[in-house]
Amino acid sequence: MTQTASPRLPPLAEMEAARLRRDASYDGVFYLGVRTTGIFCRPSCPSRTARAENVEFFATVKDAMFAGFRPCKRCRPLEVPGAHPAWVTRLVARLEREPERRIRDRDLRAAGVVPERARRYFQQRYGMTFHAFARAYRLRRAFETLRRGADLDEVAMSHGFESHSGFREAFGRIVGDAPGRSRSRDCVTLTWLESPVGPLVAGATDQGVCLLEYSDRRMLATQLESVRQRLGPVLPGTHPLLERLRAELAEYFEGQRREFTVPLVYPGTPFQVKVWDALRRIPYGETYSYEKLAWAVGAPGARRAVGHANGQNRLAILIPCHRVVNKDGKLGGYGGGMWRKQLLLDLERGQQTALALGSRAAQTAQG
């Protein structure tokens, strides 16, 4: 029984205990690989329990695949269509239902959730602790209430803040302005989506989806800051356009959708927008070279500038920068990783389903 080096993994004894009792509340917190079969699973997998000395623990699907393990066909760790463990779903529903209530550690324990487990899960999935997530969630609801014209004092006390000064401080730290001056500002709602190519971070305003990025991409922080500067504060929550995006992505990965209809918002320089518009015109199942893309935007001598704009795309898959390859047909670069680019192109050329795509991801990792 071994544990890969990662600060995001729970203690070894805790993971072993969760594995033995097939605890579904740990699904997404860690994954386990069985050396004798070469398979990796969720903690809740119903398959026969492996001997401890044959088990290796991983923080992410990617870690398990790049260690050479294949996804289990019973628990299907690659196929998580936006689902969270039941206790996470209950907590987020509670935040949505009771935005004025602060959920403390004692409330988590009363609900049967170990506070440390909640902290680890939210830190791994959302990049913040549960309490920070809950505070940001309350601020998003407060922000929306302010925009509807509610009184400032009423908003502060009805969204779980114990004082006006505490509300103003928290609001200013996240939104970047005083509450009273933010009534006319827009807000970017942020959520996390599961997919066969790994977790995706998605954001939307009321005008359209403005962010879709791989959660492990190194440029994610830069992309989030760009979205914040151009479109407004970024706060976790739910939005109808994000639910629509979730459904369209599921159809895409099943090979049932070739075009996305969800509205997009992608402000940038005039040249960047011209490149991104051209990317959207590349037909499904086809590729352009960087040279051809440069000609398409009327700048045949600006191949490098086109490539740079391509890399600044904040809407992976939706604005299909994965369809741009080198002149000799080789893949070229891709911010989400070459294995993802190859899998997306294979999906579009061969209409593979999400299950087949996940299998190819495991084979690519082993290769």
Short overview:
This protein has 15 helices and 11 strands. Helix content is 44%, strand content 11%. It has helices at 12-20, 61-66, 86-97, 105-110, 115-126, 130-147, 152-157, 164-175, 220-231, 240-253, 270-280, 290-296, 303-311, 338-350, 354-366; strands spanning 2-3, 31-34, 39-41, 55-58, 70-71, 188-193, 200-204, 209-214, 234-236, 288-289, 324-325.
Report what the structure shows:
- The two termini are 25 Å apart.
- The radius of gyration is 22 Å and the shape is globular.
- It contains 15 helices and eleven strands.
- Helix 12 (290-296) crosses helix 13 (303-311) and helix 14 (338-350) packs antiparallel against helix 15.
- It has 367 residues and is an alpha/beta fold.
- The chain has a five-stranded mixed β-sheet. A four-stranded mixed β-sheet has the order 8-7-6-9, with helices on both faces.
- A hairpin with a 6-residue loop joins strand 6 and strand 7.
- It has helices at residues 12-20, 61-66, 86-97, 105-110, 115-126, 130-147, 152-157, 164-175, 220-231, 240-253, 270-280, 290-296, 303-311, 338-350, 354-366, and strands at 2-3, 31-34, 39-41, 55-58, 70-71, 188-193, 200-204, 209-214, 234-236, 288-289, 324-325.
- It has three domains: 2-71, DNA Methylphosphotriester Repair Domain (3-Layer(aba) Sandwich); 86-181, Orthogonal Bundle (Arc Repressor Mutant, subunit A); 270-366, Winged helix-like DNA-binding domain superfamily/Winged helix DNA-binding domain (Arc Repressor Mutant, subunit A, Orthogonal Bundle).
